[in-house]
Amino acid sequence: MSLRPRLKRRPTIENKLRRFPDMQLSRMHDIAGCRIIFPTVEELLDFRAHFHKARFKHKRRGAGQEGRWNYLTHPKPDGYRGIHEVYEYDVRSEGGKTWNGLNVEIQFRTIIQHAWSTAVEVAGLLTHDKPKFGQGNEILIEQFRLASELLARRYEGSTSCYPDIPLENLIDRFHFCEIETRIIDLFRRVNTKVVDIDFRKNNILVFPYVPENEENASNLEVYSYSNVFRAIQRYNELEDELQNKADVVLVRADTFENVRVTFRNYFADTTDFVSLLDGAVQF
Q: What is the pTM (predicted TM-score) of this model?
């Protein structure tokens, strides 16, 4: 199991507010949260069941609606799978009371589901489409729907958004999409390298957007700080300086490998996705 805190990036927040103009920023439930990644669906469900019995004051929204945000039993039409839960923050400490009532999201995913989600985000970075939000090239969006179904059947004994399509047809349609998009071929060729990183607990990842006329991802930049307040200050500065030029994210982790595994999209790392998909289209 891998557990990592996460903050939604400013461009993503702005995009969501544009898509949902009636939404209030203070009630957006996924600005802050954490993502928990499990080897199997069984381990995910077992942990979640025990987590629901934990003793804390934070209130789980939609607790009586088991299907709400459960994208394992009800996959999204775009192929996204996993389970999300939202808690209202509630503590008694003086330092924490300021945040009481705000929402925190917990995302439960398997390694398979996380590999798919990472690939969708990397595709957005490399192609200037936004398949994660259903925007851009419809063939690319369709290809990820098919990939989700193939991965679910091959590795998790389940289905996704195309449960009724025969396997042979799924594979044929996926290959047709690849001929049009060449996204898997692009994933194989992208090799973003990160070298000479002075890793500390607080790290800012800066992933420059790829110019329209380039196929390969730009190099990731990493800024590491021992002091969390200095890291936050620099993070805010970089977000202002690099608007529309790069994705900027602040992460905390105990080892650099944990950062790399959890935030594969910032390293343009779709190795797991490509390997899993190779197996899925051959079974």
A: 0.69
